[in-house]
Amino acid sequence: MDINGENALKFFGKMTASIAHEAKNVLAIINENAGLLEDLCAMAERGKPVDPGRIKTVAGKMIKQVQRGDEIIRRLNKYAHSVDELDCDVDVNDILILVSGLAGRIALMRGISLETDQMPDPVIIKTNPFLLETLVWLFLDFAMDAAGGEKTVCITSEKTPSKVVVRFSKLKGLAGMQPAGFPGESEKSLLTTLNATAAIDAVAGEIVISFS
Q1: Domain shared by 53 and 90, yes or no
Q2: Which of 131, 135, 117, 123 is nearest to 89 (CA)?
Q3: In this structure, how many other beta carbons lie within 10 angstroms of the beta carbon of residue 120?
Q4: Which of 21, 65, 139, 162 has the greatest count of CB atoms below 10 A from its CB?
């Protein structure tokens, strides 16, 4: 297996494990609230008054978690289908939103806030969507380490007459790092495969990936 395949499998494993943890949290909260509803029903059966507002509150929490679970499954389904075609037109905006969503729990655990300021129009390139997702994750992972005290990473995309750009900005800690080892072998291999280049501007606190 080449290095791109290894990176893609590692990305797949990390994301699916994170999604599984999110789903388990949703089920745990639903189970907890279902138990509370059972307790309220038992109180009513014993003739004790039950505040309808408490029931409504518990039901609302369960509905919220069902909606959260539906979003997790929707994201997982979209992620799984990114391997359907190896070379196709993709909207880079959609890729950034998907990867940010997949990485949401990981970012939260690291105390990082992810911002995805999207262009109003699609930013289309022809590429391998799964490998592009892997590349975005590798750079996002590094960007989160470089977020600095503000603990924020902003991810945007834009299309110019000659190229498409993905920008990781607000990296306040980048200037204090020594990014000479980044991009590393893994990132460089994916950049070459996807016909892209990367540049780090420590002063501006930005990392830019350009697709020609």
Answers
A1: no
A2: 123
A3: 5
A4: 139
